[in-house]
């Protein structure tokens, strides 16, 4: 038996084959003392790769900048209370800034349409006057 290799015998009767921990006869996976450390490593490894929201969040209705303010206040409080992963909150903040920009552009678009309509009504009578003069 190779003493540098884990001496754990698998279900099929073969030796594990992984390198054993220095000064031990079993590998990291099969050493009972390492089991807890491994569980923590797997948990940490898993959580760093995947960001999850533990509870499904209610869909929210957004009808303007006021709703974005409410959402941001709610998100800030949830991070402070430890209910929301700061990385998820960061994404919400990022998307909120895009939403605010979109509201701003939509608002400017509406104002431009209104201004254009005002100019259109003002120009029509003045043209008529010009036409009547000639
Ligand atoms: Zn092993």
Walk me through what this model shows.
It is a single chain. The chain has 134 residues and is an all-alpha fold. 61% of the residues lie in helices and 0% in strands. The protein is built from three helices and no strands. It has helices at residues 32-49, 65-80, 86-133. α2 runs antiparallel to α3. The longest helix has 48 residues, at 86-133. It is rod-shaped. Zinc ion is lined by residues 6, 8, 16, 18, 26-27, 29-30.
Layout: helices, strands, pairs:
Elements lengths: L31 H18 L15 H16 L5 H48 L1
Helix pairs in contact: 2-3
Bound molecules: zinc ion (ZN).
In short:
The chain has 134 residues and is mainly alpha-helical.
Q: Report the major sheet.
A: none
Report the end-to-end length measured between terminal Cα atoms.
113 Å
Helix percent reads 55-70%
Domain count = 2
Provide the gyration radius in Å: 33 Å
Instruction: Extract low-pLDDT stretches.
Output: none
Number of strands: 0
Distinct bound molecules: zinc ion
From the spread of the alpha carbons, the general shape counts as rod-shaped
What fraction of the residues are assigned to beta strands by DSSP?
Answer: under 5%
What is the N-to-C succession of helices and strands?
HHH
User: What is the tally of helical segments?
Assistant: 3
Chain-averaged pLDDT: 82
Q: Briefly note the structural class of the backbone.
A: mainly alpha
């Amino acid at each position: 038996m190779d003493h540098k290799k884990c001496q754990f015998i698998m279900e099929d009767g073969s030796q594990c084959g992984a390198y054993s921990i220095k000064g031990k006869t079993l590998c990291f996976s099969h050493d009972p003392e390492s089991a807890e450390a491994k569980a923590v490593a797997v948990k940490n490894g898993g959580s760093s790769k995947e960001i999850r929201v533990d509870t499904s969040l209610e869909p929210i209705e957004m009808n303007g900048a006021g709703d974005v303010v409410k959402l941001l206040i709610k998100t800030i409080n949830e991070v402070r209370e430890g209910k929301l992963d700061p990385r998820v909150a960061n994404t919400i903040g990022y998307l909120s800034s895009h939403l605010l920009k979109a509201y701003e552009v939509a608002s400017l678009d509406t104002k431009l349409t209104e201004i254009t309509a005002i100019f259109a009504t003002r120009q029509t009578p003045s043209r008529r006057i010009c036409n009547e003069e000639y």
